[in-house]
Amino acid sequence: MRPASVCLCLLLLLCAAVPARAAQPNPAQSARPGAVQSAFVVILDATAGYARLEAAKPVLNAVVRDLPENAQAALYLYPQPSQVACLPVRELVPLGPLNKLDFMRAVSSLATPDGKPAPVLDLEAATKRILSVRSPVTAVFLSTGLDTCGEDPGPVVSLLKALGLPFTLRIVGYQVTSGQAAVLDNMAGLSGGTYESASNGADLARALRRAFRVENLLVRATRLGAPLDAVIEVRPAQAAPGTAPLATGRTGPSGLGGLFLPVGRYEVTVMDPSAPGRIRAVFQDVAVTVERIAVREAAFGGAEIRVAATKNGKPLDALVEIAAEGGSGVRIQGQSGSPPAPFLVPPGIYSIRATDPQNPRRPPSVLPSVAVRSGVTTTVPVSFDEGWISVRALVDGLPGNVLVEVYSPGEKEPLATGMSGAENPVAFPVLPGVYDVKIIDLPTKKSATRRNVSVMPGQTTVLSDFIAPSRGK
Questions:
Q1: What is the DSSP letter of 259?
Q2: Is residue 168 over pLDDT 50?
Q3: Nearest-CA neighbor of 174 among 184, 164, 163, 160?
Q4: What does 271-299 look like in DSSP terms, one character per residue?
Q5: pLDDT band with cut points at 50, 70 and 90 for residue 358
Q6: CA–CA separation, 110 and 94 (whole Å)
Q7: Model pTM?
Q8: 3-state secondary structure 388-417
Q9: Using an 8 Å Cβ cutoff, are 340 and 307 in contact?
Q10: Strand 39-45 and strand 72-78: pairing?
């Protein structure tokens, strides 16, 4: 490796990055979060030999495969020196729009994709354009060792930083010695970049992904087939309700957004910000690994579900969760709204779960196997009608505090339970129907039961003459 030559090579790459991007401006791309803002320059160092570089090729290609589709990229090679001299740097892929197949072909063969002789970089000419560079570039330098063709890189790197050149150098040392790693780490530190060692293929994959900051979670969002600028929130898998997101982003006008996450399992929420009812798609247990980018698609549209929730004859803004049957793992969540809000989903078979936000203890209403057809609005009525049971018990002829338990006839587990006070009797919400009501005098553990208590929608059944067993003397 020739450290000073590396820095001079960077000068040319940095200068070349400006016209390459200026030729194809894309304001929408540069404005959206997660969009590619700089070019990637890959520099392969074979000065210590090709054996270890051969082992690194498939790992590097796996990372290149997951680079953003709109990336700019270049590939350069420092050849192994001959017996009498160090060889000049070869340009295998010039900086420009990334063609992944050509780039990976060049990595595999260490030659130009078309097989033509690789041009030699004119490093002296590159230094003459140093002051014209004002656009950021990330250079990833993969080194497999050191040779003796160099000089101290410190003065050159310090000069680049002093001149304000917008570059970031990320160095990865693959199976290098501790002494070699110290030199590489020093070079990265002088440039304000990073250095990381890798001893095997798995370590190398992680190091390269961190160096490239590859988006290992990709989210595509559409509404009625058109790109949707959706909001992305990422939480730990099986996070408790109300957990703050670990990472956020947007898909932007193109409907495609990405995030870089540590390896792990996550819950990914994609929200349609313009839809009523806070409509969102939730992907559970999304695995992020070093081997492959995780891709999820939130397709809002093609078919429409509306949940018409009512409670005692009045509209209710219920909490709704729509899950595609068949194990896809995607769930659409939101609020039913009044009038009912549209849940835009692909055609299919869904299970619909609605919850009364006014009574979180009430079991949700579940409607399985709801068929939804393309271009058709499917309206699902859900009733949350309820009544109340109010108990004012008498203990030894006086109003007293008792434990109340409400049962469905024949059931052993109460539907509702709680203390009912002498001065402020509690009203227990239940579905319309017939119930058994049990009161327990806690000091004596004595109880009494009133059976076949009828409850009507929207009405309170008051048990004011409920007499508990006498406590005695």
A1: E
A2: yes
A3: 184
A4: E-TTSTT--EEEEEEEEE-SSS-EEEEEE
A5: confident
A6: 14
A7: 0.51
A8: EEEEEEEECCEECCEEEEEECCCCCCCCEE
A9: yes
A10: parallel
